[in-house]
Each structure stands twice: as C-alpha cells, then as structure tokens.
Amino acid sequence: MIGYEDMSKNKIFKKIKIKDTEFSNRIVVSPMCQYSAENGLMNDWHFQHLSQFGFSGAGLVMIESTAVENIGRITHNCTGIYDDDCLSSIKTIMEKVKVLSLNEVKFGIQLGHAGRKASTQRPWEGRSYLRHNQNPWKTIAPSAIPFDKDWPIPQEINDDDLQRVKKAFIDATRRSVKAGFDLIEIHAAHGYLLHQFISPISNQRKDKYGGSLDNRMRFPLEVFEEVVKVSNNLPIGMRITGTEWEENGIEIEDALVFSKQLKNLGCDYVCVSSGGNTPSPKIPVKEHYQVHLSKHIKQNSDILTRTVGMITDPIKANKILENDESDMIAMARAFLSNPRWVWDAADILGAEIETPNQYARRFKKSI
Ligand SMILES: Cc1cc2nc3c(=O)[nH]c(=O)nc-3n(C[C@H](O)[C@H](O)[C@H](O)COP(=O)(O)O)c2cc1C
C-alpha cells in the first residue's frame, strides 16, 4: 500500500483524532442497511458491500444499523449482534474485509433497535409492516402508538423491557469491542426506538420517561451512560434527530440540549440526521439539506458533529468543513453510485491518499 500523507490543504482530507484513534480524513461511508442477512447473520453480500469501501479511501466506514435484540431488527433480513452466532459471523466477515482494506481505513458499527418500526418488509418488497403470512413479530415502543394509521399497535415498554433493552445495548457494545471495531455509534434517529423515546409524537408516557424533554431523553441517555462504560475507550457517538419536520416534533433546540447532555456523558460526536418518525413529514430534500442542523449544534456546543444528506460534490463538501459547519461528512448514496468517490475528490482537491498498490497506476504513481 502506498502510504497516506497529511499534506492536503483541504480540511476534508485532514486527519481527525477522536480519543486515541486517528482517522485519515473526514470522509465517512454512512451506515447502509443491506436487508440481506439470514437470521441476523452477515454473509457474502456484506463482504462485497464492505470490502469495496475498505479500499475506497474513506477515513471511516460504518457498518449498517445492527440490531441489539432480534425483535429490534427492521426486517427479517437485518443484521444482528444479539448473540454469539451474530458475533462470530460479523468477526468472520470483518476479518476477510480487513485483508482487502487499506491500512488507514477504520470501521465503525451502528447499534440500533427499530422499536415500533421493526417487523417490516424490505424496501424492495414494500417497506410496509409484515402481514400475517409474512411471519411478523410483536413490536415494542415507548407508547402504544403505531407508526402509521393502519400499522400494528406496538406493545408499550414496561420496566422489565427497559432493563432488557438497556442490557441488550450494553451486551451489543461488548460484542462490538470483541469484533474489533474502531468506533461505536448508537442509532437514535430515523424513527427507531431511542428516537421514539425523545419524540413527543411517539412518546406519551406518564412515567419518568415521558412528558418533558428531560424525561423523554432519559432512557436514551441512560443507555448511553451504560454503553460508554463498556466501550473500551473507543470513539463513540450517536446518530440523532435534528428535526422531525413536524409541527409538534423534535426541533433543533431539543437536539442541542440532547447533544450537550451526551457530551457530558462522554459522547464524542453526534451525526445529525432528521425525520423518519412519521409517515410523511414535509422534508425539503435538496443539496445539503441537513447541514444547518449540524452547524447549529457545532456552533453552540463543544461536541464534534458529522453531517449527512445529499452531499455529492467534493468542493462543496470540503467547504462545509472549512466553514466550521461540521467536523466530518457522511455520504450514503454517493458511495453507492461511485465507491471511488474519494479518489475522484482527491484528484479534484489535490490530495495524497493511500491507495491499493494494484490500482496505483490509476493515480499515475511510478509503479
Ligand atoms: C441503502 C440505504 C440504507 C441505509 N441504512 C441506514 C442505516 O442502516 N442506518 C442509518 O442511520 N441510516 C441509513 N441510511 C441513511 C443514510 O445513512 C444517509 O443518512 C441518507 O441516505 C442520507 O445521505 P445521502 O444523501 O448521502 O444518501 C440508509 C440509506 C440508504 C440509501
């Protein structure tokens, strides 16, 4: 491998250190569910999906939202990390992926629980709730409020469930450390369980976990407080909701309060996303449509931020960082279209990046 040199004048290609871990640049392959696992276990599809990004040149590659308990899977085909079989399949795939990866690349795992958005069809099979003949399971949520009018009513989470789910996040974090990941991310966005707690739309509990913002944040913060203890000092962050794009939903000021509390508990970064907790929010989807959310949190707190959403142009992506609107950039669909996005960005911005020897001629290096 040809070594990476931190000589770019562009911030996007500058190293960033989180705790003891140095990332070779600020470009992140966003977590992307592949809906291709069997019984929670990864397979050759995940191997090809992740290995192409292992030599993409991105500083960090995120593994898809991986369920901390089996009823927390979004679909029958989501990956899990809820038992030792799951751990062993992840370890097997990641060891193979790492053989093909650049030295500099780091891998992170996103840990999630889908709550009331579990037990659904894969996107290409309809994305709706599983019908009776599709082997559905009972979902859980902070309140017995379905995601959409005709969706099954979830079971309201009781005290035992709270303890079980918290333990599932702790055990999943322990397994993630054992699997050799470089970073851990807890999923509290896109309408999944921890997001459901924070939102007044999905959380109408009467106990200490519902009502005020402090109460609604309580469970996600309790989970975070516990997982950080077993994260072996790895960089650890959360994907959060900057806005639900709904009149009575989470707003950026709520996200700011949440981010500050996370920081106090030892959270290294927040990736600021939006929406997902209601069926048809009015999202003004356009280029960089979530950057202002990251910017607000970055400029009003001291937690690192990552932005995501409709970022495709390397010069404009770099500008987001130069303008101090975010510390890192994540991209999903741009990497699906072009897994070589970083190579093209390095050409455009004039950066030296680590590349596989076999492809060095692509970079006009003298091999
Ligand atoms: C195929 C696919 C799967 C996704 N799976 C996840 C996931 O597992 N966890 C998550 O937080 N976001 C997931 N997302 C959302 C992306 O990470 C990203 O936030 C979103 O696509 C916006 O970024 P983009 O415009 O660069 O695609 C997924 C997106 C796509 C396209």
Overview of this protein structure:
The model is unreliable at 1-7 (pLDDT under 50). This protein has helices spanning 44-54, 84-100, 159-178, 193-198, 213-229, 252-264, 291-300, 314-322, 333-337, 341-349; strands spanning 16-18, 21-23, 27-29, 60-67, 106-112, 140-141, 155-156, 183-187, 236-241, 269-273, 304-308, 328-331. Helix 8 (314-322) links the parallel strand 11 and strand 12 (328-331). It has 10 helices and 12 strands. Helix 1 (44-54) crosses helix 2 (84-100) and helix 5 runs parallel beside helix 6 (252-264). Helices cover 32% and strands 14% of the residues. It has a single domain, classed as Aldolase class I (TIM Barrel, Alpha-Beta Barrel). An 8-stranded parallel beta barrel has the order 3-4-5-8-9-10-11-12, surrounded by 5 helices. It has a two-stranded antiparallel sheet with strand order 1-2. A two-stranded parallel ribbon has the order 6-7. Residues 30-33, 64-65, 110, 187, 190, 239, 273, 308-311, 331-334 line the site of flavin mononucleotide. Flavin mononucleotide (FMN) binds at residues 30-33, 64-65, 110, 187, 190, 239, 273, 308-311, 331-334.
Fold topology:
Elements: E1 16-18, E2 21-23, E3 27-29, H1 44-54, E4 60-67, H2 84-100, E5 106-112, E6 140-141, E7 155-156, H3 159-178, E8 183-187, H4 193-198, H5 213-229, E9 236-241, H6 252-264, E10 269-273, H7 291-300, E11 304-308, H8 314-322, E12 328-331, H9 333-337, H10 341-349
Parallel strand pairs: 3-4, 3-12, 4-5, 5-8, 6-7, 8-9, 9-10, 10-11, 11-12
Antiparallel strand pairs: 1-2
Helix pairs in contact: 1-2, 3-5, 5-6, 6-7
